[in-house]
Amino acid sequence: MISTLTRAALAAAFAVIPLTVAAPAQAADTLPLGAAVAQLPVADESRAGYTRDKFKHWNSGANPSDGCNTRNEVLLAEAIEPPTVAGGCRLSGGTWFSYYDGKEVTGASGLDIDHMVPLAEAWDSGASAWTAARREAFANDLGADTSLVAVTAQQNRQKADQDPREWMPLSHDVHCQYAAEWTATKLRWNLATDPAERAALLELAASCAGTTVTYQPAP
Fold this sequence. Notes:
Blueprint: H1 4-15, E1 29-32, H2 33-39, H3 70-78, E2 84-86, E3 90-92, E4 95-98, E5 103-106, E6 111-115, H4 119-124, H5 132-139, E7 148-152, H6 153-159, H7 175-188, H8 195-206, E8 212-215
Antiparallel strand pairs: 1-8, 2-3, 4-5, 6-7
Helix pairs in contact: 2-7, 2-8
């Protein structure tokens, strides 16, 4: 017979064992660019039903208590000379490097935060089937450095919702990097490519020997 003392000890031991165990985060994968593109599913795109407000952004970011929304958190993370941060996360000063066009930008007002894979492109490529919460997570993805990037407003607006078949950064020297970051973002979020987009990415990969793609699936 189990004594009362033993029963109490067992009860105490089991009380600290969690009923559920969170699944460990998947490890990051690194692949050559061509192999990474080959991992992407292929599907025709559909813009039906898309509106930008179906992707809530910018939200309160990684730390809701600091007053900085996702946009400002990206700016703080990417600054090469940090801005001054005032109450309400108001930024002044600071310097950034816009890699799309190789320009140095002083002051946050000259920058946009580009979704590496534009919201409309994400919708076309599979996000139309997501929950609103998952679309919000995508639009505010601070978990991968390549998902959101501070660039000149001009480059961001020229890009709009175009994929790499239709638009590439002004600086030719970064085309391999851009293709890798686009592919990493699509792999992270399990988004598809259309046939023309895939062909363009594979053509880029053929001229980007040594370029690799590192990605970790989104939670």
